[in-house]
Design goal:
By secondary structure, this protein is of the alpha+beta class. The chain has 8 helices and 28 strands. The strands form 5 sheets. Strands 11-12-13-14-15-16-17-20-21-22-23-24-25-26-27-28 form a 16-stranded antiparallel beta sheet, covered by helices on one side. Strands 4, 5, 6 and 7 form a 4-stranded mixed beta sheet that branches. Strands 1-3-2 form a 3-stranded mixed beta sheet, with helices on one face.
């Protein structure tokens, strides 16, 4: 009985002590709480306090937070964000990071400043990287893996880099027959860390990657074709021809992906998936099946378009007819009419027909023939009527080579030019009402490197192309038989380079983009039949995809900028910022863009001068849509080499910026580049 009373007294004493302690702690923490818990506070600002160093970018940290400015403050979200920051640092090698929080309330304004306190405590690097489970892999495959590895001793620990390294290894294994290769789920990734002062190490980690299933290679077996609702009588041979592998080849996931991409070239095919049918362990064979779903064979489609032509922005409408299995073989026939309008003096109508052959000789080569009739009011002075014939052969080289595609064009054009007003170009004068006829034939070759990650709005990657053209060879041969034919002779080289970099480390909210264009048309040949290059084939400066401080075709070191020049040097730099990235409403698709454009067009390359390079600066807004970004830009002439000496620089005559029209408003669909 005595023991029971003492036991109860002891428990009661401990309870009182704990209660007092907690009340003391709560009293100390109370300074972080608002006067009234019933007030709904708004986040006024989010700040960071770095006690030691600041290694990671603040913007990248802000992106991972749920807490946002001008939103209702929730302490639970505040704590969850603290843990998110800690994990983000941990994933970047800061294993000993300490993250704390503090909140400063303004009861009168009903706002709060959320502050994160970060102590980094040093960053860990790789000391030893070990890969297990590849002892039965063939020597050539193992060699490919070793050449492709990116992680090195001394690199900072990074979780994303480890995942990427794992993906590289698995990709090579699964492209070389190791169908079952995977990361060992029990012992896949083991990281051992050694802090400074521990066993002689200084913030080091040992990494071990373990793989299983890399002990047996499989080969492709048979492939069944299943065409759902095959009402057009599509033959299996058309699908089989698109397979990039054959029975007996080593199993490869990449070859399956390439084959599925080949199906997408066939317009009648809506979707094509390659699936595992049976797996024969006894013969190390994998049998596959292809599931094909078809599009409509015939279709009539009206459309609205917005496009840049000769640096001018055109809006247009048209109608097109499609036959997606024209004469069989998966080829596409398309015919249509399209009208384009820039202004009452500048407009055009195109009548076109196209035949597309998805497989020419083999699955890597496609062929296109396009016949087009164009009525083009080029400007208030010139009107073109053109018959264009284009043969294009497109070749997919390989995804892993630097130049991954190429195409060759052969054109044969008949050009009729009508002068609506008298035009003076150099020493040549064409009177109003004059009509000239010209034949042009161009043989061109373009080679392309493209590893950008999006067609409309790339956030990373490089695009690079080189185009070489020769004009006049065919008309020269024809002129032997008919001396009344006029034509141009020239060599043309055109280089285009575009680069995109995501400075937010994969968040795709702040993109730095750059572009450089270089083009030269070198005329040659003499004779009564040889005429200067028509404006339709020249370079122009100014406009929505050029120097944005100038209106379209208003720039250039030229007597008549609207008729173009033969030498082009231009470039652009842009900072693209997704301004409301964390919003979930209308504003989430808005981008703000700051740009610098430079360059010009010259009459000939020999007249090029660095001092004549024009500069334009400005800002713009983009709004993402399913057809690409809608674009509005305001550009200013930062440096105009054609202006008077005391008005060349914008800042020397700022008060006359709008009076002297040193600006331009540009519209467009899609980014400027």
């Amino acid at each position: 009985m005595h023991f029971t009373k003492n036991w109860k007294f002891l428990v009661l004493s401990v309870f009182v002590i704990i209660l007092c302690s907690n009340r003391e702690v709560l009293a100390q923490r109370r300074t972080d709480f608002p006067d009234s818990l019933r007030i709904q506070y708004t986040v006024d600002d989010i700040t960071f306090e770095f006690k030691t160093s600041e290694t990671l970018d603040k913007n990248s940290i802000l992106y991972i937070l749920s807490l946002q400015k001008d939103q209702v403050f929730k302490r639970r979200t505040f704590e969850e964000d603290r843990l998110r920051i800690k994990k983000y640092y941990f994933d970047n090698g800061f294993f000993d990071v300490v993250v704390d929080t503090s909140a400063q309330y303004d009861n009168e304004a009903e706002t709060v400043i959320a502050n994160f306190i970060i102590i980094e405590n040093g960053r860990y690097t790789f000391d030893k990287i070990t890969i297990l489970g590849l002892n039965k892999v063939s020597p050539d495959v193992l060699g490919s893996i070793n050449k492709s590895l990116t992680l090195k001793t001394g690199d900072f620990y990074n979780r994303d880099a480890i995942i990427a390294e794992t993906g590289i290894i698995l990709g090579i294994l699964q492209d070389n027959g190791y169908f079952y290769a995977s990361l060992d789920t029990a012992n896949g990734t083991i990281v051992s860390k050694y802090p400074t002062g521990s066993q002689g190490y200084g913030n080091k980690v040992n990494l071990q990657l373990s793989f299983i299933g890399a002990d047996k290679q499989y080969h492709f077996g048979t492939t069944k074709i299943n065409i759902k609702d095959n009402k057009y009588g599509l033959k299996d041979d058309l699908i089989i021809r698109g397979l990039s592998y054959k029975p007996g080849d080593l199993y490869s996931k990449t070859q399956i992906s390439i084959s599925e991409r080949n199906f997408s070239n066939i317009s009648i095919v809506q979707s094509g998936r390659i699936l595992i049918d049976t797996l024969m362990d006894s013969s190390s064979t994998i049998n596959l099946k292809v599931e094909i779903t078809l599009n409509k064979k015939y279709e009539v489609t009206p459309n609205l378009v917005a496009v840049d032509i000769d640096n001018l922005f055109f809006g247009g409408a048209g109608i097109q007819y499609f036959d997606r299995n024209f004469l069989g073989g998966g080829r596409t026939f398309q015919i249509g009419v399209q009208g384009y309008l820039h202004s009452k003096d500048i407009n055009r109508v195109d009548f076109s027909s196209t035949v597309f052959q998805p497989y020419l000789f083999n699955y890597r080569i496609t062929g296109t023939y396009n016949l087009k009739f164009i009525f083009y009011n080029f400007d208030k002075s010139l009107q073109f009527t053109t018959i264009q014939n284009l043969f294009r052969f497109y070749y997919i080289i390989a995804p892993y080579t630097f130049y991954n595609s190429a195409y060759s064009d052969i054109t044969f054009d008949l050009l009729r030019t009508k002068y609506k007003e008298t035009v003076i170009s150099g020493t040549d004068t064409s009177l109003s009402g004059t009509i000239t006829n010209q034949m042009n034939s161009i043989i061109g070759f373009t080679i392309v490197h493209d590893n950008t990650n999006d067609v409309f709005s790339p956030t990373k990657g490089l695009y690079h192309s080189i185009t070489l053209e020769n004009a006049g060879l065919l008309p020269r041969l024809v002129s032997i038989l008919n001396s009344n034919i006029s034509y141009s002779q020239y060599f043309k080289i055109y280089l285009l380079n575009k680069i995109f970099h995501d400075i937010t480390g994969g968040k795709a909210t702040q993109i730095v983009a750059g572009q450089i264009k270089l083009g030269d048309i070198i005329e040659y040949g003499k004779g009564a039949n040889v005429v200067p290059v028509a404006p339709l084939y020249k370079f122009f400066s100014g406009g929505s995809s050029s120097l944005r401080g100038w209106n379209a075709k208003e720039g250039g070191i030229l007597e008549s900028p609207e008729t173009g020049g033969t030498f082009l040097f231009e470039g652009s730099l842009e900072m693209r910022w997704k301004t409301f990235a964390m919003n979930q409403n209308f504003f989430k698709n808005i981008w703000t863009v700051y740009f610098l454009d430079f360059g010009n067009v010259w009459e000939k390359d020999k007249y090029f001068r660095f001092s004549q390079i024009a500069l334009a600066v400005g800002l713009g807004i983009r709004y993402d849509t399913f057809i690409g970004p809608l674009r509005l830009d305001l550009g200013f002439k930062l440096y105009d080499p054609t202006a008077e000496q005391n008005k060349k620089w914008l800042f020397k005559d700022l008060h006359n910026t709008f009076k002297d029209h040193k600006f331009a408003v540009q519209f467009g669909l899609g980014n400027a580049f």
